[in-house]
Amino acid sequence: MTHKKQHSLLNRANVACDMVSKHIKEDHVIRIISHNDADGLSAAGVLANAIKEENGQFHISILPRLKPENVRELAKEEYNLFIFSDMGSACLELINRFKADVIIADHHQTNDTGSEDHVIHVNPHIFGIDGSKDLSGAGSAYLTIRELGEGENNKKHLAPLALVGAFGDMQCQEGFTGVNELLVKEGEEFGSLEIHEDLKIVSKTQEPLYKSLAYTLNPALPGLTGDLEESMGFLEKMGIFHGIKFTDLEDEEKDALKDELIKLNPDIFGDVYSVPKENHLLRDLEEYSYILDSCGKNKKTGLGISITLGERGDAIDAALNLQKKYRDQLTKGMEWIKREGSNQMDFIQYIYNEDKVLKSIMGTISGVGTSSGLLNADKPVLAMARMHNDVKVSGRTTRKLVDKGVDLGKALHDSSLSFGGQGGGHDIAAGAMIPYKEMENFLNLVNDMVEHQLNNN
Fold first, then answer.
1. Cα(3)–Cα(167) distance, rounded to whole angstroms?
2. Which of 15, 211, 228, 408 could be joined to 395 by an S-S link, Cβ 3.0–4.6 Å?
3. Comparing C-alpha atoms, which of 218, 201, 203 is closest to residue 257?
């Protein structure tokens, strides 16, 4: 059955691929609209690289979210082909009205709206495949261009870049599954992807070791993630100088560190996915995703896109500066969560902040707060940040709660609509935008919906 579902998805993607090929041959500029996170930037990069390799032309726009007014404005633009990547499924009704051809390469939850003949909808959910863990937005984009061009291998060398998007959406927490396994296989065969076991701490060649530990978010290190002082003390207690880089440790020190970190979280040692011929700062696909995420969070999406298109040197230096800024923000956010905790309701918990620095990372710190033990893992967490008259909501939960029936995508979609907002996403992670004046009513409704989901699974 699983094979049949994947086959159906690949067939749909191949129809989309034929459409891309047709417009490249007709010398049309292809309009790409994608999301501003690591997955969306990777998705746009996959599409743009494939089109560029076929001597095609493209015009990219990156958005923090696709609002109905964005879709209506795009519909007025005079392009022959639009591709929405890592977004679009929730706006299918409006996109159906486009006069041009459209491809939606998404992985977020779908509704019951069908697509018109000129709209090709590539989304794993349509075929009964879980888009929250089995395929990312960049993965859907990859399937859409995978067979483009002449030759047996076509664009399969772009599989590692698609997996960067999967890392960005944390789809490798328990190893890659589903269609992502196909991308791994093709990455190994055609994209120089290598897999080896190692410690999954970040910035091994760049940062002092205590910072590498504190900046490691996934998997989180309870007591160390987000806490520079605790990380320093942890190393000093082991007799390891906190300022040394991981790569400069003796082998026996590396082994001792591995043993101690595994006690904190066994998942810290496992498969690392890398492209050895890549720049050393982008070699590890998960590190690559963090760099793209930093570009997105700091509103430098053009820089992120340029890196996916092959810019190195100054572009990577600029991105690393953004990453440092982003990590400082995360550290501040984790300190805030440790100090303030969350507000508890019967079936959910929430955090609320109006700090302009923390607003852009509320979703990240809520997820890391849960995985590092600072927040209650037995309840979904809603991270709320005020944006003028609205509140931006980022919801996170655990796979364990999803298995018990929690579906944050549905809860946030339905609850936000009740108050004139919009929302949706995945069962495990979702977002919404609601009027500030309705925040309390919204929270109560989400709490009731999660209760209903848990009691009716």
1. 23
2. 408
3. 201
Cα separation, 123 vs 127, in Å, equals 8
pLDDT (0 to 100) of residue 319: 95
Which residue is listed with tokens 């029936």? 405
User: Are the C-beta atoms of 197 and 164 separated by less than 8 Å?
Assistant: no
Q: How many residues does the chain have?
A: 457
The model's pLDDT over 312-367, given as tens digits with 9 standing for 90+, comes to 999 999 999 999 999 999 899 999 999 999 999 999 999 999 888 888 888 889 99
Sign of the Cα torsion 225, 228, 230, 233 reads positive
Tell me what the mean pLDDT of segment 278-298 comes to. Answer: 94
What single-letter DSSP state applies at residue 284?
Answer: B
Domains of the chain by range and CATH?
2-191 (3.90.1640.30), 206-333 (no CATH), 341-455 (3.10.310.40)
In Å, how far are 17, 115, 123, 206 from 13, measured between CA atoms? 6, 14, 9, 39
Q: For residue 120, which of 203, 18, 192, 243 has the smallest C-alpha distance? A: 18
Token duo for residue 136: 């990312």
User: How wide is the angle at C-alpha 435 spanned by C-alphas 72 and 113, nearest 5°?
Assistant: 40
* β strands within 133-240, DSSP E: 194-199
> Could you tell me whether strands 81-85 and 57-63 are parallel, antiparallel, or unpaired per DSSP bridges?
unpaired
Indicate the pTM of the whole model. Answer: 0.92
**Angle of helix 2-25 relative to helix 179-190, nearest 10 degrees?**
60
User: What is the CB neighbour count within 10 angstroms for residue 400?
Assistant: 10
Residue pLDDT, tens place only, 67-101? 999 999 999 999 999 999 999 999 999 999 999 99
Contacts of 203 (CB under 8 A, 6+ apart): 211, 212, 215, 287
Say if CB 51 and CB 30 are below 8 A apart: yes
**In angstroms, rounded to a whole number, what is the distance separating the alpha carbons of residues 167 and 285?**
7
Q: What is the pLDDT of residue 377?
A: 93
Closest C-alpha among 446, 431, 457 to residue 347:
446
User: Helices in 270-313 by DSSP H: which ranges?
Assistant: 285-297, 301-308
Rounded alpha-carbon distances, angstroms, from residue 305 to 36, 45, 295, 333: 10, 6, 9, 27
Q: What are phi and psi of 128, to 5 degrees?
A: 75, 20
